[in-house]
Amino acid sequence: MSANRQPLPPETPTRRLVIGVGNGYRRDDGVGVKAARRLRESRADLTVVEASGEGGALLSLWRPVDQVVLIDAVRAGSQPGKVHRFDAHRQSIPSDFFSYSTHQFSVAEAVEMARALGTLPRRLIVYGIEGKCFAGGTGLSPEVDASVQNVLERIAGEFQSGVMIRETEEAHA
Question: For the chain, what are the domain ranges?
């Protein structure tokens, strides 16, 4: 994987937000929330919030922010625990990845609405972790739980030295 670092102009104040999306009472749907909680413990330099994934609330959360990383569970038919990465300025977010959502207006629709309105943050990266079980209950499946650390390390790279990294890897490898 190669990366091209693109610093923000020095006159621009950098506001960085990580949003962990999910429902901890629907097993793997809680992976974004778990990742957010772990990140909050280790990165005081980032603003980290938990959200249900309702699109209107997401639009409000990221509207005043320059750099956003969002973490959520996805159902794309990949192996459980597979990490998908999307740069919202370079590609659309597949709405079928988030089709399990209980909200009519979910992550993918929120991104596309913000794009249509011209209100996407300067950088918006979405990490989707392939879920296995979305039934009622608590706790992540082992494959999904094992992916949390990988995503946290990748997020650390996103914000390395105050620079957002633009990865040139395959769209959602």
Answer: 13-165
Q: How many whole angstroms separate alpha carbon 112 and alpha carbon 81?
A: 25
pTM: 0.83
- Please state the length of the chain: 173
First CA to last CA distance, the chain: 10
Backbone CA torsion sign across 95, 170, 68, 156? positive
| 105-121 residue pLDDT tens | 778 888 998 999 999 99
Strands 123-130 and 67-74 turn out to be parallel
DSSP 68: E
Query: For the domain 13-165, what is the CATH code?
Result: 3.40.50.1450
- For tokens 């309105």, the residue is 117
